[in-house]
Amino acid sequence: MYLTQFLVLSAALFCIGVYGVLARRNAVLVLMSIELILNAVNINLVAMGAFNGTVAGEVFALFVIAVAAAEVGIGLAIVLLIYRNRRSIDLHEVDLLKG
Amino acid sequence: MTSALASLFAVESGTAIYQTSGWFLENVWLVPFIPAMSFLIILFFGKKLPNGGAPIGIAMVGVAFVLSVLTAGQWISQVNYADSHKSEAAHCESLEYDKSKVSHGDDHSGDDHGGADDHGDDDHSDDDHGDDDHGDESGLGLYEGEQALAPVFAVEAGDGNGGAPCPVIKSYTWWSSGGHDITVGTMVDGLTVTLLVVVTLVSLLVNIYSTDYVAGDRRYTHFFAFLSLFTAAMLFYVVSESVIQMIVGWELVGVCSFTLIGHWWEDQDNSDAALKAFLTNRVGDIGLLIGMIMLFFAAGQTSSVFQINAAATAGAIPQTTLLIASLCLLAAVMSKSGQFILHTWLPDAMAGPTPVSALIHAATMVVAGIYMIARLYGVFFNGLSIGGSSINALALIGAVTCLFGAMLAFVQDDIKKVLAYSTISQLGYMALALGVGAWTAAIFHLMTHAFFKACLFLGAGSVAHSVHSFDMKKDMGGMRKFMPHTYRTFLIGSLALMGLPPLAGFWSKDEILAGTGGWGVAGGTGGNGAYTFALVMGIMAAMMTAAYMTRVIYLTFFGEFRHVPHGDDHAPSAHADADLDHAGAASPAAHGDGHEDHAAHDPHESGPRIVIPLYILAFLAIVSGFLNFPKGFQLVPKGLQTRFEHFVEPRAAAEYFPSISHAAPSWTLAIAATGLVLLGAGLSWFYYFRLVPNQELAHDATPEMIARSRTELVNGPTSKIGALKGGHTALVNKYYLDHIYDKGEPVETSGAGIMASLYGLAAGLGLGITLDNGLDLSLNTALISGVGAGVTVFAIVFAALKSGTGIASFTKGLLAEAADWSNKHLLDGVVDNVGKGAVRAADVVYKIDQGVVDGAVNAAGRASSGAGGGLRRLQTGKVQQYATYMFAAAAVLAGILIVFN
Question: Whole-model pTM?
Answer without folding.
Answer: 0.68
